[in-house]
Write a structure and sequence with these properties.
Layout: E1 8-16, E2 19-20, E3 25-34, E4 40-47, E5 54-57, E6 62-68, E7 73-82, E8 89-99, E9 102-112, E10 118-125, E11 136-142, E12 152-154, E13 168-170
Parallel strand pairs: 2-9
Antiparallel strand pairs: 1-3, 3-7, 4-6, 4-8, 5-7, 8-9, 10-11, 12-13
């Protein structure tokens, strides 16, 4: 059967929520359309999750559609979970569609968006007398779900103290 007569395409997709936190569930809705002139049966739709931090819930990463008539649209649903160790970024997810000895791959995107939550704690202080040099140690704690990269810390000048080391460090 020529492709001009029968072709399945991804018309649209939607993720709810549109941005997911690590460990959070999402519902993925994919609208397929038969843009050809003939009915197509036995359509296999498979999400390739092997290179992305998502896993299927409730069902597998594959679904079969019995038939899509010409010019008709069908919606399929997948329930996924973002793995707890997923980093904040947009992931391209390949979708393989197979029918009538035809196999094609399309890409959709899913976004993991976690926030960092940085706390600054005074770890120790050797301050004991006025006008005496002393050390203070600060501790940075990330209580958020996202990694913190390229952190630059700057101690502001103040009339209350004098900075005798560099006032800025890169962690």
């Amino acid at each position: 059967m020529p492709l001009i007569n029968a072709e399945i395409t991804i018309d649209s997709f939607n993720s709810n929520p549109s941005k997911v936190l690590p460990g959070e569930r999402l519902k993925l809705s994919i609208t397929l359309e038969n843009v050809g002139e003939k009915d197509i049966s036995n359509i296999l739709v498979k999400l390739d999750l092997s290179q992305v931090p998502f896993a299927p819930l409730v069902s597998s990463s594959e679904q079969v559609i019995d038939e899509i008539n010409d010019k008709e649209k069908k919606i399929i649903l997948f329930e996924l979970i973002a793995l707890p160790n997923s980093e904040s970024q947009i992931y391209k997810v390949p979708i393989e569609i197979s029918y009538n000895n035809t196999k094609k791959t399309s890409l959709i995107s899913l976004e993991v968006n976690a926030k960092a939550n940085l706390d600054l704690i005074l770890d120790s202080s050797g301050i004991s007398k006025i006008n005496e040099q002393s050390k203070i140690n600060l501790k940075f704690v990330n209580n958020g779900l996202a990694q913190i990269k390229f952190l630059k810390v700057t101690l502001q000048e103040s009339p209350v103290y004098e900075i005798i080391s560099p006032n800025s460090i890169y962690i």
